[in-house]
């Protein structure tokens, strides 16, 4: 609700210095205390069904049992509140719940700052500068540690039986392990459900990847309820396609075209990159597999003298690079684009690049989970071209839907 200028003038009357407003006995702390205590009284009144000392209360036997003093944290610093209590102990105010030491909303601010990649020291400095609140790094860690219960529940939640398309990708972070900062790989599985909605299926961390690791990931998805995947889009990590096919033998593995292009251009000088990229597009942009294979042959004839490893890599991976040619245009547009996973990774990298390293693996999982939670709020629409793609899937895989 808007606050009138007249009311503000009345409140500021007699405030001659910042200390009068922000100090220990300043206006903001007094307001926080009075407003909070008024709200707590209103909660108690709603809980009991009558106001203090009214007729209903006297007739029914007063269930109030005085007040308890409790010091809580707020954005205006520590405030001592008089918390009303009832005789049977059933009153649990929403503003300051039993066992909590923060006014509702304060923890959420800390978690929101943490989700944006700020360290506990950064948050401590920000709260002190913006609100004049001194909060210890230990307290901030305690607040954010509560997120780990959510992470564990989310990571083990049941999943849908069918995801027509699943994108699997990885990003690298630096985390401290046994006193040494090391590169760690964080793997993501992004599923597209039958309604065309994006859903992150899970996060996994590993220092090294391999067939055994990926097999455990795929088995976890299976155990959480995923019975079938039509197409799995991934990069060419060793053991990755084989692990998918071992658990989901009917699934077709499409290697990521974007990763293949990046690999192809890695050792190409800047003057030639644009030309070679255009010639590669003739391969993956072809209308049919036959046209694509001819374009690959033409590329080899043109560039093998200078860059023989490019065509060699495409030919070595051709069986899994060319899977999307088996599908009609509607499905190609849905599976060929890597915008879904690439945009997600870009939003995560904005968070992780602000830190040189994380104190431990748990901190990595907390930050990425919170960042993903923020990103998923934007997933309000099905992916583009999904309805015609799903119609084609229903015809092609009617026995599996």
Give the CA-CA distance, first to last residue: 51 Å
Total discrete domains? 2
Largest sheet: 5 strands, mixed
Mean pLDDT: 80
Give the amount of beta strand, in percent: 15-25%
Order of SSEs: HHHHEEHHHHEEEHEHEHHHHHHHHH
Low-pLDDT ranges: none
Number of helices: 19
Strand order of the largest sheet: 5-4-3-6-7
| Cα-based radius of gyration, to the nearest Å | 29 Å
Shape: elongated
Report helical residue fraction: 40-55%
How many beta-strand segments?
Answer: 7
Structure class = alpha/beta
Pfam family, one: Transposase_mut
InterPro entries: Transposase_mutator
Protein name: Mutator family transposase
Family: Belongs to the transposase mutator family.
What is the topological layout?
Blueprint: H1 5-12, H2 18-22, H3 27-48, H4 55-60, E1 64-74, E2 77-86, H5 106-115, H6 120-131, H7 137-145, H8 147-155, E3 162-177, E4 180-192, E5 198-206, H9 211-223, E6 228-234, H10 240-247, E7 252-255, H11 257-265, H12 270-284, H13 289-303, H14 308-316, H15 318-321, H16 329-336, H17 339-352, H18 361-376, H19 386-396
Parallel strand pairs: 3-6, 6-7
Antiparallel strand pairs: 1-2, 3-4, 4-5
In short:
The chain is an alpha/beta fold. Helix content is 51%, strand content 17%. β3 and β4 form a beta hairpin.
């Amino acid at each position: 609700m808007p606050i009138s200028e007249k009311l503000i003038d009345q409140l500021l009357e007699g405030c001659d210095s910042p200390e009068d407003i922000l100090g220990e006995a300043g206006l903001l702390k007094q307001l926080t205390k009075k407003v909070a205590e008024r709200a707590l009284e209103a909660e108690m009144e709603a809980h009991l069904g009558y106001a203090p000392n009214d007729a209903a209360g006297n007739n029914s036997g007063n269930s109030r049992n005085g007040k308890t003093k409790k010091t809580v944290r707020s954005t205006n610093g520590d405030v001592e509140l008089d918390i009303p209590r009832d005789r049977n102990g059933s009153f649990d105010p929403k503003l300051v719940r039993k066992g909590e030491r923060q006014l509702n909303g304060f923890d959420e601010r800390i978690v929101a700052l943490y989700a944006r990649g700020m360290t506990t020291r950064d948050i401590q400095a920000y709260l002190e500068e913006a609100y004049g609140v001194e909060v210890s790094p230990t307290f901030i860690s305690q607040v954010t540690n509560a997120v780990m219960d959510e992470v564990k529940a989310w990571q083990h939640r049941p999943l849908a039986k069918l995801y027509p398309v699943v994108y699997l990708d990885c990003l690298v972070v630096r985390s401290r392990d046994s006193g040494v900062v090391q590169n760690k790989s964080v793997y993501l599985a992004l599923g597209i459900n039958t309604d065309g909605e994006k859903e992150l299926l899970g996060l996994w961390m590993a220092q090294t990847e391999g067939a055994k690791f990926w097999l455990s990931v795929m088995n976890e998805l299976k155990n959480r309820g995923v019975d079938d995947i039509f197409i799995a889009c991934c990069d060419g990590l060793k053991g990755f396609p084989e692990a998918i096919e071992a658990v989901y033998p009917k699934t077709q593995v499409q290697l990521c075209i974007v990763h293949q292009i990046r690999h192809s251009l890695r050792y190409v000088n800047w003057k030639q990159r644009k030309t070679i990229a255009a010639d590669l597009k003739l391969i993956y942009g072809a209308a049919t597999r036959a046209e694509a294979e001819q374009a690959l042959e033409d590329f080899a004839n043109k560039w093998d003298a200078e860059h023989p490893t490019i065509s060699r890599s495409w030919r070595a991976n051709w069986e899994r690079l060319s899977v999307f040619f088996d599908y009609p245009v509607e499905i190609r547009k849905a599976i060929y684009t890597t915008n879904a996973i690439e945009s997600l990774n870009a939003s995560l990298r904005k968070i992780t690049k602000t830190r040189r390293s994380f104190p431990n693996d748990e901190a990595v999982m907390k930050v990425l989970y919170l960042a993903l939670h923020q990103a998923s709020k934007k997933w309000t629409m099905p992916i583009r071209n999904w309805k015609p793609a799903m119609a084609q899937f229903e015809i092609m895989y009617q026995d599996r839907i």
